[in-house]
Amino acid sequence: MRPVSHTSAETLKICRPAPRLADELTRLGRYPLIVVDEVGYIPFEAEAANLFFQLISNRYERASVIVTSNKPFGRWGEVFGDETVAAAMIDRLVHHAEVHSFKGDSYRMRGRELGRIPTDNQDD
User: Fold this and answer.
1) Average of pLDDT values for 37-55?
2) Stretch 10-27: mean pLDDT, rounded?
3) 56-103 pLDDT per residue, tens
4) Which candidate, 32, 35, 12, places its Cα nearest to that of 22?
5) I want to staple 75 with a disulfide (CB 3.0 to 4.6 A). Which of 4, 12, 71, 99 is the partner?
6) Cβ distance 91 to 101 under 8 Å?
7) pLDDT (average), residues 25-53
8) Considering the entire predicted model, what is its pTM?
9) What Cα–Cα distance (Å) separates residue 21 from each residue in 9, 16, 35, 107, 110?
C-alpha cells in the first residue's frame, strides 16, 4: 500500500516561512500522486491560492496530480480570486493531462427528488 498524507491550504499557510514551506513542498513531492478534491467548493483566500499555485508549480512535470472540481476552468478565476493565477495553474494542470468532464446529476443524488421542481413534460 502506498503512503497517504493529508495536507491543506491551512497546512501550507502554517509553513509559509520560506524554509518550512520549501520543506513541506519537498515532503509532498515524495508522493507519486496527490489528489485535490472539490476545488472551487469554497473560494480560496489570496494567500491560499498562491500556496496552491506553488504546490502545482512544484509538481509540474515531476509528479501526478488529480484535481476534481464542480467549476469549469472558465470560472477558476472566481475560485482563486485572480484570473492570471488561475490561468497559469490551469496551464500547468492540463499540459500533460487527460481532462474528463462529467455532466448531469451527482451520483450521490441519483434517484432522489430533494426539492426539485417538476417539469411540465413529466407524467404523473
Assistant:
1) 90
2) 72
3) 999 999 999 999 998 999 999 999 999 999 999 999 999 999 999 888
4) 12
5) 71
6) no
7) 90
8) 0.72
9) 11, 5, 19, 37, 41
pLDDT of residue 1: 46
Write the burial class of residue 80 (CB in 10 Å: 0-12 exposed, 13-18 middle, 19+ buried).
buried
**Cell reading at 113:** 427528488
- Find, among 39, 53, 55, 48, the residue nearest to 85 by Cα: 53
CA distance linking residue 96 with residue 91, whole number of Å? 10
Decide: 3 and 41 in contact? Cβ < 8 Å: no
Contact status, residue 60 vs residue 94, Cβ threshold 8 Å: no
What type of residue is 96?
Answer: H
Cα 55 from Cα 82, distance rounded (Å): 17
List alpha helices for 1-124, DSSP H.
9-14, 18-29, 46-59, 76-80, 83-94
Q: Are 58 and 50 in contact (CB under 8 A)?
A: no
pLDDT at 84: 95
